[in-house]
């Protein structure tokens, strides 16, 4: 009630349907078949067994209360009997999963907590089943004919010589076994990770329905930006903490964790939650930043959002991390390399410490002039981005894009030295003020330009312009270059040759894929070039990050056990038949080309940009001029 506010009450129908599909259908949970199955057995069983709880509570309040009128001794008794066994099966599967299979994602979870909960549920189910069995052995139970499991147990009990009145005390023993297990279970939930039993539905209902990249807007009137203490969290962030099941799915897909860096999204949520609980009882003198959450933990995040993609409870890890980063930036607690990059961005509008006038130097090697969109109207305004403009390793691809657009007759232009970094990674690094400075400059420049739509080769710029700029008044139709190239192919403006039989694998960039749902255009484009796309196991929404996002490309990556980009290259090579690793992001080209060298995979796989394949497939005489 005292936490910072967040608006989460819009679109109630969509929110409610999300609860039905996520909770009722277990859609995200079933992405892990074994865990989804055991959870579904326990969850559905508890829903059915609520009827038994209602009946027992009703009898306590009003003697003689029963559900007989609506089938309490018939079909309800049958469901209870079957689901008591199914819950027991689910508990055994869970115990096997935790103590025999022991998936790596459970590392860091509270195993003692999980063991206690499973033991209590086990006692409750055994109590219910044996209570029914001894009641049936006692005789006279009107539900006996509808209880196949209870009847089977009764026959075993009778075979052991216990029946009639001799079964009564045993029925009482197991009745109280069930009741005492339930009595221990309910209050224990409040202080355990199983609080998610009550928090899951509201947290899923109140999930973010906006773009994946939405961040909490910093209050310019606040004494400081971001979050430095736990009581500065929003109420939704606090609800996230209490909803965590410690399942470790987020940890399992985190590129920082896999690289041996000090970040586990799961442990981060657990640590902040435990600190919140302590502050609720008594201040212990510990501060959220530095004491509870280390600086290097926060800086390890690539903001790839894989953790949020797989979380069954829709916990929002990345916005929480960015909120805490904002405070680290305000206090100057960052690596020197990051500090230098931010200083360069503030001074020159780019992270390469180069003059604005050098931004368009790559155009001088072209045999045609590119329009200046500030001075003459264009159909497509190309927002080039820093790496595409300044990095020598990427400039050749930038020139290829220009040549293909020119050959297709696209009316396009650029902003030349007036373009500044989009600010996407600046904002995710926590420098909110600098982000707004960069964004406002670009918005003002775009306001003085005449164009129909914006195209960019950089998914990070795509995300900033499409998702962040509207909050500052900059609303534009923006698309990725793979979308425009596919459009040109579909229109016949480009006619590729299809005489090559080549198998490639395509890497989904985080900010094109998970953040902006750009999965299909690159694949359709490659297929239209006559190429066979063999996806890696981790693809589309489950794609593995290159490790450059969230400002990580400006930070030191030494000390990692294996860089995320190297891990990804090994995954591509393991396919066996793909000899080209196709990227659609300038940062990806830089990261993965270096990873191929670092892993010694030269000659086994080649990193190529989509535009290289497009240009190679275009015979000069077959390029048609687009219809005006």
Q: Give me the count of strands.
A: 9
Spatial sequence of strands, sheet with the most strands:
1-3-2-4-5
| Sheet of most strands | 5 strands, parallel
How many H/I helical runs? 25
Structural class designation:
mainly alpha
End-to-end separation:
59 Å
Shape: elongated
Helix content: 40-55%
The overall average pLDDT, rounded, is: 91
| Beta-strand residue fraction | 5-15%
CA-atom Rg in angstroms: 30 Å
* Uncertain stretches: 620-628
Structure at a glance:
By secondary structure, this protein is mainly alpha-helical. It is 50% helix and 5% strand. Strand 6 (503-506), helix 22 (520-528) and strand 7 form a beta-alpha-beta unit.
Write structural notes for this entry.
- The chain has 628 residues and is mostly helical.
- The chain has helices at residues 12-24, 33-61, 75-101, 111-138, 148-159, 168-189, 196-205, 235-243, 249-253, 255-258, 265-281, 295-299, 306-310, 317-330, 336-348, 386-390, 392-407, 424-428, 432-447, 459-468, 481-491, 520-528, 564-573, 586-599, 610-617, and strands at 371-372, 378-383, 412-414, 451-456, 478-480, 503-506, 532-533, 580-583, 606-609.
- The two termini are 59 Å apart.
- Residues 620-628 have low confidence and may be disordered.
